[in-house]
Amino acid sequence: DVKVTQSSRYLVKRTGEKVFLECVQDMDHENMFWYRQDPGLGLRLIYFSYDVKMKEKGDIPEGYSVSREKKERFSLILESASTNQTSMYLCASSLLVGTDTQYFGPGTRLTVL
Amino acid sequence: TQLLEQSPQFLSIQEGENLTVYCNSSSVFSSLQWYRQEPGEGPVLLVTVVTGGEVKKLKRLTFQFGDARKDSSLHITAAQPGDTGLYLCAGALYGNKLVFGAGTILRVKS
Known about the structure:
The complex is a heterodimer. By secondary structure, chain A is mainly beta. Chain A has no helices and 11 strands. Chain A has strands at 4-6, 10-13, 19-25, 31-38, 42-49, 56-57, 64-70, 73-78, 87-94, 103-104, 108-112. In chain A, the strands form 2 sheets. In chain A, strands 2, 4, 5, 6, 9, 10 and 11 form a 7-stranded mixed sheet that branches. A 4-stranded antiparallel sheet of chain A has the order 1-3-8-7, with no helix packed on it. In chain B, strand 4 and strand 5 (44-49) form a beta hairpin. Chain A binds chain B through residues 4, 9, 35, 40-45, 48, 58, 90, 92, 97-99, 101-107, and chain B through 2, 4, 6, 9, 30-31, 33, 40-45, 48, 50, 88, 90, 92, 95-98, 100-103.
């Protein structure tokens, strides 16, 4: 079974702090994704990566950056956290882009005070 | 506005009832996926439909892709408390990305 793990289930940070969210997948998938999930808005794509050191902006990249130094690890960085970044963050991976199944981690609920 | 509109947003029913969740768009998708998400977990894929008009069954769940590949439905027969969760549809636009609907929260009471 594919396993996608995220470094924290819950995080509380203060406005202006730098925040790192880590995601690791164990199935040698090429593609990894970061989404945020908010009530009534569904999942919105922040960034995705289709290869090591490659990244593409999603629909809402502002205020975020990502890093993929190793194939299995994809990090989401909030350079200066703001209260409007309080959300559930979901990481996913897939073997192929587009129609392929995405495997999700359990999510990190981030609260920015 | 959402590219994929799901309805209803929330559904609370008694065990044994039937229900249908709808996913609609003005865009054409190369395929459409349905995911189910339980509290505290990430979404898990239930099914992918690819061909216009396609119907797939997964035990008591029936999924249909519209003929024009712009809409889909999920029908649950004789709902069980274990069906409780958030149901998400996700359309694959020609190219790469998946676009998710806002989801339908289903609560099945025993």
